[in-house]
Structure formats: C-alpha cells, structure tokens
Specification:
heterodimer, A: alpha/beta, Rossmann fold, 8-stranded mixed sheet, 4-stranded antiparallel sheet, 12 strands, B: alpha/beta, about 35% helix, globular
Chain lengths: ~325, ~325
Amino acid sequence: MAEPVLKVENLKKYFPIKRGLLAGLRGESQRFVRAVDGINFEVHNQEVFALVGESGCGKTTTGKLVMKLLEPTDGRIHLEGQDVTELKTQEEIKAYRKKVQMVYQDPFSSMNPRFRIYDVLEEPLLIHGIGETKAEREELIYKALEMVKIVPPEDYIGRHPHMLSGGQRQRVAIARSLILNPTFIVADEPVSMLDVSIRAEVLELMKELKERMGVTYLYITHDLSTARYFADHIAVMYLGRIVEMGPAKVVIDNPIHPYTRALLAAVPEPIPERRNIIKELPIKGEVPNAANIPPGCRFHPRCLYMERGLCDTKHPQLIEYEHEHWVECWLAGKI
Amino acid sequence: MAGNVLEVKDLKMYYFTSRGAVKAVDNLTFELKKGEVLGLAGESGCGKSSLGFTLMGMPTPPGKIVGGSIKIDGREIVGLPDDVLRKEVRWQKISMIFQGAMNALNPVYTIGYQMIEPLIYHKGMNKEEALDRAMKYLELVGLAPEIVYRYPHELSGGMKQRVVIATALLLDPEIVIADEPTTALDVVVQAQIINLMKKLKKELGLSMIFITHDLSILAEVSDRVAIMYAGKIVEIGDSEKIYYEPAHPYTQKLLGAIPRLHEDVERLEFIPGQPPNLITPPSGCRFHPRCPYAMQQCKEQVPELKEIEKDHYAACWLL
C-alpha cells in the first residue's frame, strides 16, 4: 500500500496539573492530565479519517497536535514522510502550516468580526506571500469562494462575517482553509453547530472538495452518523486511547469494543416505532476524570463484561482483530 | 374536545423591534392530548423556542402575544394578568425544561435551595416539607437525594439536566415543555436523558411538548410531530406518518438531510438558501423561495393546514 499522508506513532500529550505551594513543599509528585496517551494511526491519501468520542476523550487535543498548535509530550507525527515533531524554526513551522489547515467548530468565533470576507481570505495569502499583486490575490479569493459556492463572490467579499448565515460562514471558513491549497485538513466538529439542512450541505461540499482538490481530512466529531456518512475510517477514542479503529462501515456495523457498542446503542435514530422502548445502554457510570485514569483497561469501571484480575489490572493493547479492524480489549471476540 | 390538555388556536406572538414586528409565531393552531408527547421540530429561528415561552405565558421581551388563544385544561390563559399567571398557571399547570441545563441553575445556591423555592412560594410548604419533596423528585429522576446539599459545579452535565427536569416536575404540572433538553450533552448521557423522559411519560402520564431541531431525537420520544417553518406549522401528524409518508416538501427535505447510522446514503439532501427574515416573510407559502416544486399559486396565496388523511395535516398547495 502507498505511504500514508499522515502517520501518528505513540503520540502522547500530558498536561501538568497546577499544584499549590504547600503540595510542592510536601514533596507531592506532579500530576498530569493524560489527554492523549499513546495513540497510533495512519491516514491515506484522499481519505477521511474520523476521530470519534465524547467530550474529554482527547480528540481535539489530537487535532491540535497534528496542527502543531501543541507540542507532544512523546511520540511522532509524520506528514508525507516528514517528521513534524522535528520542525523547530518559525520558517519550518510556517511552511508546514501551509500544507495543513484547520476548520473550526464555531463559524461565529473563528473569524475576526472586523474583517470583511475579502480580508478573511486575503490574510493567509499575505502571511504566506502568495500572489504578487492585489489582482492576483483577488483572483485566488474569487476562485476559493466559487469553489465553496459562495456565488457570486462580488456580492460577498465586502460583507462582514455577521452579515452571513451560519452555513455561509462555515463555507467561508472552508474556503479560507483551502485557499493555500493544503494537502491535509483538520476539521474539528465542522458541522455540529449548523442546522440539519445546512449541515448536509456543508458535508456534501467537503466531500466534493475531497475529490476535486485531492485533500485528505482528519474529521473530529462526536456524531457517529455523520462519521459513517463522511469518513472512510473511524477511530473511537476513550480517555486518551484509541479503543477501536477500522473501516467506517465495519466499526459501525460490527463493533467489537464494549465502549463502541455502548456509543452506537446511544445514537438516536429516526425510527418512531421505538418511541416507547427504553433503550438498553450497555454501559454504567460516567466518564472518569482524565487526571485519574483507572488502572488496567481504562474502560473497565464502566464495562459490563469486566473480568476481575485481568481487565482491572493489565493494560490491553490495540490488536488487529481482523483485517484492518483494530480493537483494544482483553475480551475482543469473546463477548 | 375531550382529552385535550392544551388547545392553541390562531396564536400569534410577534417581537416588536425597531426594524418592525418579527412574526415568530404566526397563526398556530394545534392541540395536545393528555398523556401524549408532541414533538416540535424546525430549523433555528423557525419560532419553536418562542412558541415554548409563549405557551408559558412569558414571551421573551420585546415579544408580545398579539392574538389567538391558549387554553390549558379549558382555561384561557391569554390575557390573564401576570400575577395570576405566576401564582396559578406557570409551574403549576405548565412547566418548562430549559435549554442548556448548565446555565439554568444558579451557581451560588445549593440544588436544594433552588428546588424548594417554588414549593414554598406556590404550595406554602415549610422548608423541611419542601426539602423532603425535592429529595423525592430527585430520586424519581435517578439521582441520590443527598444532592440537595450540593452546588451545581459539583455535578456533571447529565446530573444537572436531571435536576432541571426534577424541578420542572415538582408542582405536578399538567404539561411539560422540554426545550432542547439534550443539546450540549454527550451521546451516552443524551440517551440516558431520553430514557428518563420515556420513563417519566410512562409512569407519570406526562403530557409533553418536546422541542428540538434534531429529528432523530424527536423520533425517540414523540407520539405526534409538528414541523415548523418560519413561524408556521407546515405539517402535523402521527410520528409514523411524518417519518414514513411526509407530505410537505420541507418535511421531506429535512428527513433527507439526516445521515443514517446503519444505512448507506449516496447523497444527503439539503435545502438551498436560508430561512427567511420574519419581519417581511415571503408572500404566499413562506417556503416557496426554497421549494423545488413552487408554482405561481405558492407565491400568491398562503396555504392553510388541511387534513390530507385522518389526523395528518399539511399546508401546501401541491396536495
């Protein structure tokens, strides 16, 4: 198989917890929130790779690490064969950011309200010195807006972000990420704040651009239904670990990890006959604090199948359960 | 009609802004049967939350009810003075579970303190009795009674949402309006809250109006569904009819926009354009500028809700 565009190896990010002076004097050891705790995955050319999980599972932190907005505690990130963690100088990082762009969740706060749409799109061009003359830049801006179907562009470039609807703003955000012609886009919950009908429009647009522009996406979401629709591969995260990973349809139609099963059982579906049935949710308790990760399998306190002496003491590893389908569970295939 | 706990007729609520009146709720007529969950869906800005607050008799300023009637158990509440509404209607007859439980609780008071306030005010209970009842209702929603001594920041999002639900039920209201009760919750917690609502419906026989933009969640709880667009109900009927035989083009498009978990969908549908401005809504059918089937008549005449089959109404000239 061809070399992956993005390769993440044993990636870790620990955030130190601030401790008081007294705790320091007492010699208490420094504690950490283990937001991302040793994850491995690969994203291939023109693929959509979805990171799915609940709040606090580390999916956004992973996105920020890939964007190099955070420095990893340990591990490696390779983009097109280049070791990203080795990039140190401003110029190197700037060149990297040209290749990797981000779309944020909230189109209301991800744009400077004082900028016109023209300025929003011109800024990355100026920073990266693309387009010698104003006319050249204008040409690129028009093209980018046409690509995301903000047409005719002349009607929009003079407007401020508040004069656009949420869907239009998110499309401008996508145009901004595409204007530098990146190879990789990190999309962090790009549609979760949009209305249903607009959500579908933005997803369709991102799908179309994948084919037309040849971009590869890391799609971060909590929504398994859109992940199935949009992504080729899905990785399910729980407390900083990938617990299950594989082709989108396989993970959703044949989940192995008890956590994936619980998540899937919880997804509401537009099937009204089930309205009087109280759904069985094969999970107990609540997500523990990431500063206090349970020993052994970190899902064991919430797992209905937990085996004493195994799951609560020994840490399982992500193994290839079947071709391309990875699971981190001691009981994979037995439950 | 017998069996209806709520009858709304020709209800109009406009926001009076400096730019003109925003017709957020425009000529709505529907009823809620006893023990039934009516789901209310639509995009942001279609007036579904405005309707919720209006039914509570407290449209958000500068909103005012400009016409129509709201009858709760046969009693007209439009036009009642505010102190009567507060003493006799709100929370006693009709209560509301607010959107965003995180913000519905006051961070500086204990849960108990916030819960007993309506009991002391409405039922004249003393503090002990009130606290006792609050604890009983916390147990009903699946929480430990000791939570009355806790502060909101000590609870998780799901627990806070349960507290808000318990508070809405404290005075045994006839009708509960749930306004996006699960947004901002994680998917597992959301499913737990939906299960709780189903359980309460069954055990207490609650009559409920469930407001959300998410048609998947709505299908999980609703016996009947009303679809709102630009301040009007465009279709209303039994859940099965709405989900499997939607009649209005807007409903059809909305359903086509949902990605399915266990089905392959080639292409999602979407509705081009955006919801109209409600100060000067489009003439005729308000959906016509976005409707793929719009005809001349749609631009000129306002379609009324008509019964296309038993208990299934839609407002569209094509039918």
